[in-house]
């Protein structure tokens, strides 16, 4: 263990305080990449195995929704490991506000998650919002149909943000959709007959108790001294409240078709499973530009596999979803159909961006920053703030040593996490949307692909270098296409979690990037 001061810097609060150079000198994280991913898979698979033991469809539905709680527990258990390791090995674990909810979970808040759900607008504002959205988002139909829809409603409804894919879907269907906010689904006069206490007890006996019995037996710091009695009480209350909403949703279903975005959130999952259970066609919408560059079976299984109908932008993306996610393990006995709206948006964007003049010199590098929260993601390797902040620090210093100008592209919504960390070593920090600023750089540098920015970057004609630690979980046929457009530099994650790469190969990729004019991948994925 190479750690000068015998400390573990537990979150970005401390990195901002101590400085990233201090983390670099004291780099140590006790939970290895393989150990974390193995435990995550164990939690995921055992939850599915236990939940599938029952043929009760309502138990299956709520268990599917409560994958969200299992994922939350994973993050709490991860930090529990770090705490217990530090105690045993006389290390000082220093943490701040960024990881507080994982170090000291607010169980009362977690317990009352569903009863605490609030929509940011009152009833009157929702009515005004519904009218405005129905006028704006139904411009493809006649004014008379819009007025009729506003006055009398429709058996086709849309819930959630009206993103680009949903807008194109609606326009191509050429019918009126009633755009409402999710609380409207609960406002209808319904009579609930179900006994929610009976359901809570059933869920406790059939799922919670058997699942926690398996977790208790896991001999590791992840679950050492975990108060499973307390968490059982928390989860039982969550289930009771989730089932109350679920029952209200089921009893209010009078629509033949529902369009839904934000499908991985618990309320989105509740709406999906409740409406599907009553025979309503629920179309769940793909988010961002993800074309399965990284095969994220576990993420799809826990976030989206509840969807019977999944809408993607292009047939190229739909084909990849079918190939990789049709048979992922899931709790329900459902099967997901993948649809394409044959959108030309990304391809037309590529044609537009191709007009930009390319400077063959690569003097200005734009590093696409990572979101530095305390969540350790499972949709790839090394997706954790500790690993990424150290990697970005080393990349910046290396590029500066080669007299390159470095622009750091921070996510607009996550700037507070990184503010002050790189200010003194990069030439510029940018928070504006990527599509507005990418042309300021001669080359785009990515360290991961599970970001919508990477999909957009492929539509530009800027050279791209990818430091790739996910080569083992990629589609090799896709990589053959992508490698004609992107210069991928292999990276490996060591036992100490540090992401390592060959500096010579990396610098060669920077000064001799792949020809950015290749459109093989774009044509196969984005040209409908």
Strand order of the largest sheet: 11-10-9-12-13-14-15
* Largest sheet entry: 7 strands, mixed
Structural class: alpha/beta
Strand content: 5-15%
Rough outline: globular
Mean pLDDT: 93
SS element count, helices: 23
Helix content: 40-55%
Give me the Rg, rounded. 24 Å
The end-to-end span amounts to: 51 Å
Give the strand tally: 15
Would you identify the regions where 5 or more consecutive residues have pLDDT less than 50? none
Structure notes:
- There is one protein chain.
- Helix content is 47%, strand content 12%.
- The chain has helices spanning 12-18, 20-25, 33-51, 57-65, 67-88, 100-103, 107-111, 123-137, 143-152, 164-173, 196-216, 228-252, 266-277, 297-303, 315-325, 345-353, 385-401, 415-418, 434-437, 452-457, 476-482, 503-511, 520-526, and strands at residues 7-9, 92-94, 156-159, 178-180, 257-260, 281-285, 309-312, 337-340, 364-368, 405-409, 428-430, 443-446, 464-468, 486-493, 499-501.
- The strands form three sheets. The protein has a seven-stranded mixed β-sheet. Strands 4-3-5-6-7-8 form a six-stranded parallel β-sheet. A two-stranded parallel sheet has the order 1-2.
Q: Which keywords apply here?
A:
528 residues, alpha/beta, six-stranded parallel β-sheet, 23 helices, 47% helix, 12% strand
List the helices and strands and how they pair.
Elements (H helix, E strand, L loop, with lengths): L6 E3 L2 H7 L1 H6 L7 H19 L5 H9 L1 H22 L3 E3 L5 H4 L3 H5 L11 H15 L5 H10 L3 E4 L4 H10 L4 E3 L15 H21 L11 H25 L4 E4 L5 H12 L3 E5 L11 H7 L5 E4 L2 H11 L11 E4 L4 H9 L10 E5 L16 H17 L3 E5 L5 H4 L9 E3 L3 H4 L5 E4 L5 H6 L6 E5 L7 H7 L3 E8 L5 E3 L1 H9 L8 H7 L2
Parallel strand pairs: 1-2, 3-4, 3-5, 5-6, 6-7, 7-8, 9-10, 9-12, 10-11, 12-13, 13-14
Antiparallel strand pairs: 14-15
